[in-house]
Give the backbone structure.
Amino acid sequence: MTTFARSRSRLALGVVGALVLAGALLNPADAAKPDGSRIPIQVETGSSATGDPTHALTSGWWGHEGGGNNGTGTGSTFLSLDASNGTNTVDDTTLAATLLALGAPDLDHIGYAIVPTTSNGSNEDPAVVAGQNAAEVFNAGGAGRVLYLGFGGAMNGSTLANDSVTVVSSKSEVEAWVAAGRPLQTFNNNLQMVDVSSGNVSLTPQGKSILNAWPAGTNLSLVAFVTNGMDPDLDNQVPLVADDGSGKAKTAWMPFTTVGKPGNALRTSAGYQVAGAYAPTITATATSTSTGTSLKATIKNKANGTATDATGTLQFAQVIGGVDQTPTSVPVSGGAATLSLSGFTTGSRTYDITYVPDAPAQATYLTSAPKRVTVNPTTVSLSITGGSTSDTLKATVSPKTAGKVSFKDGTTTIGTATVSTSTGIAQYKKLLSAKKHTITATFTPTNTSYTVSTASKSVYKPTISITKSPSTVRHGTSPKLTIKVVATGTSVSGTIKVTYDPASGSTKTYTLTLSGGAKTFTLPKAVAGTTKITVTYNGHSPVLAATKTYSYKVT
């Protein structure tokens, strides 16, 4: 059970010791104070809230400050405000002026809520009726949440699987929880609230963990408000909100954007980026070749174009048993990065891919939400069969899955065919010209969890020439035929089938072996009329089969 905590500490006035911070620091003039906000609001790390604007963090991780850009630090996050009153020092005078500007009698009468950011401040500076509590006032159409922490309240994380840092509650959640008798609750490893008495996921959870209450990239505002007691109707769990005499709450706020924890699809709001930058999206494509599989991730900007200005790393974390493993960090170049999965040819793997900006990119980009990708390698084999009127290009995809195969001759696309899911085969017919052809078949799956795969083959389309001797054939003579099969750029071997079809009499078929790509043989005695000769070269890799018909008259 979490109750609202009012800080009993006071600002450390006078000289504030230097702090080593994990996140970026604001200059005093840069403290977060949007139009309409009474004072600047900030969060800090270290040993306590100081109110010193030079300690304000511009980015970080709730309850896990420090440790770089991966959300694994151990520093606390303190809810604070800028108590310098626009100066470079914090003392009793500046603190008094700050409290006066906010309209708070002291630091103990400051509470915090989180609401969706609005351009006109309507969520951050709402109307209030006497007796309303913070969950009501900052409901924001059901999207607002109240924190059970006041000024100086510390958010502390842990290394446990159910690390939740702190609870944030919507109006409906806290009301249902109080109505249920405020059951003692904790979080499970999926960050669901569990009733301790039963061990079951609660039907009336007090709220959510701040680490997964919103999607990554959500624009929110941390609102500090003045309190004037606790709401007895909610068992004094949530503070009442003081009004300024005109029916408005007395508030100040800090806009921020949620950041997902790298390699952790569950903790989508584990971090924050104060104003300005945004979390890009990630797309991913897996490709298989004969040597292995690779996974390419591309960073997309707000316009859905490739974020070529993004620098930093893409973190590829393999998911095993639902748990992200230690990620592999790949530097970003041109808005993308590729992870080699050499040796991975069968089965499937799942990865969470997260973009983590480096310091120069943090002015524009936040850490992205993890993109989960399942990779199923495919292979494609290519066969090419020569024919008399067309040649057949056949791609066989394994495993059998829906998609299309694009066939290229060199760099020119010559056709596309749909893969049969029953056979895994895609075929395309085209009569190739007599020369060398380098054919590439590229399989693109319908289901993007399967990989793109390619296969290439170089083949030669031959020419067949037929000459007879003598040139004039007379009845009763036995002419000779010389058949040559030529494939420029390679030698030709193998067999030919010769079909002899005279004007009268029976048709005969001969199978002959080429020597040096040629064969000369003697035909049967000629009969008057037209004789038709059909020569079929049977093909011998890398030379395709081919057919030629030749006719002559016998006198």
About this structure: The chain has four domains: 28-162+210-229+239-273, 277-375, 379-460, 463-554. The helical segments are 92-102, 134-137, 171-179.
